[in-house]
């Protein structure tokens, strides 16, 4: 399922960056659909994701944008360490340390807290867009 989703996004990205980004958000709910309906094929889940994301892609994009500050904050200590080591070491020592630090950026301790928060927000977003519409109360 993830392979097929990635393949479709890569093919759309060949048309330029923007169609690839749009399709990334169109297919974003595929894993949630597959976990809720395991009998669906990958193509059916992708099609269903496109259907439920129709009109919701911008909302998910804005949700992702709201996490940029947290991600930058998590990466800040590693970037600070990177520049600190560059100023104190030279030559091959600086190169070795910079490679280690650049590879360690995704492993920053803060990302262990932010990534689950993002996943929970996406799962809540999925529940929000797939929830059955409720009837208004007629008691008033």
Give a structural overview.
The chain has eight helices and no strands. By secondary structure, the chain is mostly helical. Helix 1 (2-13) packs antiparallel against helix 2, helix 3 packs across helix 4 and helix 6 (68-88) runs antiparallel to helix 7 (91-104). The longest helix has 21 residues, at 68-88. The chain is elongated and about 70 Å long. The chain starts with a helix and ends in a 10-residue tail after the last helix.
Helix and strand sequence: HHHHHHHH
Largest sheet: none
Q: How would you describe the oligomerization state of the chains in this entry?
A: single chain
> Fraction of residues in helices?
over 70%
Please supply descriptive tags for the structure shown above.
mainly alpha; elongated; single chain; 140 residues
Strand and helix map with partners:
Elements lengths: L1 H12 L3 H10 L3 H7 L5 H12 L3 H9 L2 H21 L2 H14 L6 H20 L10
